[in-house]
Amino acid sequence: MNVPQHIAIILDGNGRWAKSKGMPRNYGHAQGSKNVERICEEAWRLGIKYLTVYAFSTENWSRPKNEVDALMTLLRNYMKTCLKTAAKNDMKIRVIGDIEPLDENIKSRIKELEEATVNNGGLNFTIALNYGSRDEITRAVKKIAEDCREGKINPDSITEKTVNDYLDTHDIPDPDLMIRTSGEQRLSNYLLWQLAYSEFYFTDVPWPAFTKEELIKAIEEYNHRHRRFGGVEEEK
Ligand code: IPE
Ligand code: IPE
Ligand code: MG
C-alpha cells in the first residue's frame, strides 16, 4: 500500500456525535481529543510522517461563549497530555494559526510543547489553532509587504516559493490526502493554498468514532486515485 506522507484532517462532528448519545457537546469534544491521540499513534505505525489537524478555526469564536470557554479549557489540558505523548512517541509538535489572541497560559504551553519536541524524529504533528487559511494568507501578504518596504526582498523576485515561505506551514510539505469526517463536504477555511493538489476523502463517520480501520479505508481509497498534477499519466 502506498501510504501518503502527509494527511490533513478536519475532525468534525464531535458535537453531533455527543448529541446522538444524549450527551452534551463538550463530551464530544473531549472524546474527540482522545481520538486525536489514538489516531496519531496509528498514523505513525502505518508509516505516515505528517499529520495536521484542524482543532479551532478563526470562525469558531462565533460559537456560544460557554462552548468557546470549554474548548479553550480542553485545549489547555490537551497541551499537557500532548507533552507526555510526544515524549513517549518522539513526536514533533507544531501549532499553526494566529496564537496571539489566545490566553497567556495556552501560549506558554504551546511554546513549551514546540520547544520540547523540536528535535524529535517521530510523527510531525501539527495542530491548527485559531487557524483560518484566509487569515494565514493575509498575515503572509502583510509580512511580505513589510519586508519589501524594508528592502529585504524585491517585489520582482517574489515567486510561489516566497509566498509558501511566509505561510505558517513553511517547513511542512503539502498534504497528500485531506480527510473530513461527519458528512460535511467543504474546506471551512482550512489550508486553501496547501491543499491545491491534495486528494480529498469524505466520510459520514463523526470524528470521535473514526478508528484505525477508517483511516486504513481512507488510505486504500487514496491508493485508487490518480494524481496527475496537471500532467498526463504515463502509459503502462
Ligand atoms: C469540530 O467539531 C471541532 C471544533 C470545531 C472544535 P464540532 O464542534 O464542529 O462538531 P459538530 O460539527 O457541531 O458536530
Ligand atoms: C471546521 O469545523 C473547523 C474545525 C474542525 C476546527 P466547523 O464545524 O467549525 O465547520 P463548519 O462551520 O461546519 O463549516
Ligand atoms: Mg462542525
UniProtKB/TrEMBL annotation:
It holds the Pfam family Prenyltransf. PROSITE patterns: UPP_SYNTHASE. Keywords: Magnesium, Metal-binding, Transferase. SUPFAM superfamilies: Undecaprenyl diphosphate synthase (SSF64005). The keyword Magnesium applies. The active site is at 12, 60 (proton acceptor). GO terms for molecular function: ditrans,polycis-polyprenyl diphosphate synthase [(2E,6E)-farnesyl diphosphate specific] activity; magnesium ion binding. InterPro entries: UPP_synth-like (IPR001441), UPP_synth-like_CS (IPR018520), UPP_synth-like_sf (IPR036424). Its cofactor is Mg(2+). Substrate binds at residues 13-17, 25, 29, 57-59, 61, 63, 180, 186-188. Mg(2+) binds at residues 12, 199. The keyword Magnesium applies. GO terms for biological process: polyprenol biosynthetic process. Catalyzes the condensation of isopentenyl diphosphate (IPP) with allylic pyrophosphates generating different type of terpenoids. NCBIfam families: PRK14830.1 (NF011405), uppS (TIGR00055). Homodimer. HAMAP family: ISPT (MF_01139). This is Isoprenyl transferase. It comes from [Ruminococcus] lactaris ATCC 29176. The gene is uppS.
